[in-house]
Write a structure and sequence with these properties.
The protein is mostly beta strands. It is built from 1 helix and 22 strands. A hairpin with a 2-residue loop joins strand 18 and strand 19. 35% of the residues are buried.
C-alpha cells in the first residue's frame, strides 16, 4: 500500500470514529447519572437512589434502590417532552399488586416526580445529583475508638420502638428481631474492625455512614454474591466466600475512603478498593455528602458483637 493510500485510510477511519463519537455525545441525556432521592412514604421521608445511563446511542436504562430491598434493574427509561421520563419496576418486598410506576422530570439540575405504589397510592419524591466523594490516597489515621465499651450502650441509640439489645458477659447482643442500633458519633472516612457471631440462619448487617450495608448473613458454602456475607448489599460481590460456620466468631476489617471500600472477611480481602455506587436499601438517609453513623441491623435476626473499633481518618 502506498503512503498516499495509507494516509487516506487513516483519515477515513478518523472520520468514522469522530462521527461515531459525535453521535454518542449527542445522545448523552441530562438525566444520566446517579441521583440521591427522598420519597414521601407512609407519612415519612425515606431515602432512595436512582441511576440512569445509556445503552448504545439511544436507549436509557438503570437501577433503583427503594427504602428497603436491593438494587433493582430498570430495563428501560422512557423519555418524553423536555427532560421528562417514566419507568416501572416489579415489586420486591412490597405488598403484592401492580408494578411500581415512576414519573419524573428534571428542572434546574434537580429531579422531582411521583411513584404509583403497588397498592395504587401515589407518592411524591425529589432528587439531587449524587455528590462526588473525594478519595485520599495513603491517608493518615487518627487514634482507634472503641465504640462499644463492653459494659453498656453508651455512645449508641436505638432506632425503633423496641430495644432488644442487651450486654451479656461483655458481648453486645440482639437475641431477637427488634430495632436497629446506631452510633451517636458520625464518621467520614475510617477503618473499622468488628468481631461478630450469629446463629444458624440469621441475618444482619453493618451500615457504613448509615448508608451502605455490608451484609452479615449465614452463608457458609454458598456461591459468592452481594447478598451474602462479605458483600455490599445489592452492589458489590465478594471475590470469594470466606464465611465461617454459624456459631463461630468472625471478623470484618473494612476501610471506607470516599466511595471506595475494601472489605476483609476473616483475614481474606474479598472486596478490594471498589466503588460503592449509592445507598443500599434500609439506609438512614440519602445525604451521601455528609458524615454518618454506623448502624447495626437488628430488625432481622439475632446477632452478637464483642468488638467494634473505629479508626477515623485525620482531617
Amino acid at each position: 500500500m502506498t503512503f498516499r493510500k495509507k494516509s487516506f485510510r487513516i483519515l477515513f477511519l478518523c472520520f468514522i470514529f469522530g462521527a461515531a463519537f459525535n453521535t454518542y455525545a449527542q445522545h448523552i441525556s441530562p438525566l444520566e447519572g446517579r441521583w440521591d432521592l427522598e420519597m414521601d412514604f407512609m407519612g415519612k421521608t425515606v431515602p432512595s437512589w436512582l441511576e440512569i445511563r445509556h445503552s448504545g446511542t439511544a436507549t436509557l436504562l438503570g437501577r433503583f434502590v427503594f427504602a428497603f430491598g436491593s438494587a433493582r434493574p430498570i430495563s428501560e427509561v422512557k423519555t418524553y417532552g423536555d427532560n421528562k421520563f417514566t419507568f416501572s419496576i416489579p415489586n420486591q418486598w412490597e405488598p403484592k399488586g401492580s408494578d411500581m410506576i415512576f414519573h419524573g422530570e428534571l428542572t434546574d439540575g434537580k429531579m422531582k416526580g411521583t411513584m404509583i405504589f403497588t397498592d395504587g397510592s401515589v407518592m411524591h419524591w425529589t432528587g439531587v445529583k449524587a455528590p462526588e466523594l473525594a478519595y485520599t490516597e495513603n491517608p493518615k489515621w487518627d487514634k482507634p475508638i472503641n465504640v462499644f465499651n463492653g459494659k453498656d450502650l453508651t455512645g449508641w441509640h436505638v432506632d425503633g420502638e423496641k430495644n432488644q439489645w442487651v450486654i451479656n458477659d461483655g458481648v453486645l447482643t440482639s437475641p431477637e428481631s427488634g430495632s436497629n442500633l446506631v452510633t451517636d458519633q458520625k464518621f467520614k472516612d475510617f477503618k473499622l474492625h468488628v468481631e461478630f457471631r450469629y446463629p444458624q440462619g440469621s441475618n444482619s448487617g453493618i451500615y457504613l455512614r448509615g448508608r451502605y450495608e455490608v451484609q452479615i448473613v449465614d452463608s457458609e458454602g454458598l456461591e459468592p454474591m452481594d447478598i451474602y456475607l462479605g458483600g455490599v448489599y445489592g452492589f458489590l460481590e465478594p471475590n470469594e466466600n470466606a464465611s465461617k460456620p454459624a456459631g463461630e466468631w468472625q471478623t470484618y476489617d473494612i476501610t471506607l475512603i470516599g466511595r471506595r471500600v475494601t472489605v476483609t472477611l476473616n483475614g481474606k480481602t474479598v472486596i478490594c478498593d471498589a466503588t460503592i455506587p449509592g445507598i443500599t436499601g434500609g439506609a438512614i438517609d440519602s445525604k451521601e455528602g455528609e458524615p454518618g453513623p454506623f448502624m447495626i441491623q437488628g430488625d432481622h435476626g439475632p446477632i452478637e458483637y464483642r468488638s467494634f473499633v473505629v479508626t477515623p481518618r485525620k482531617e
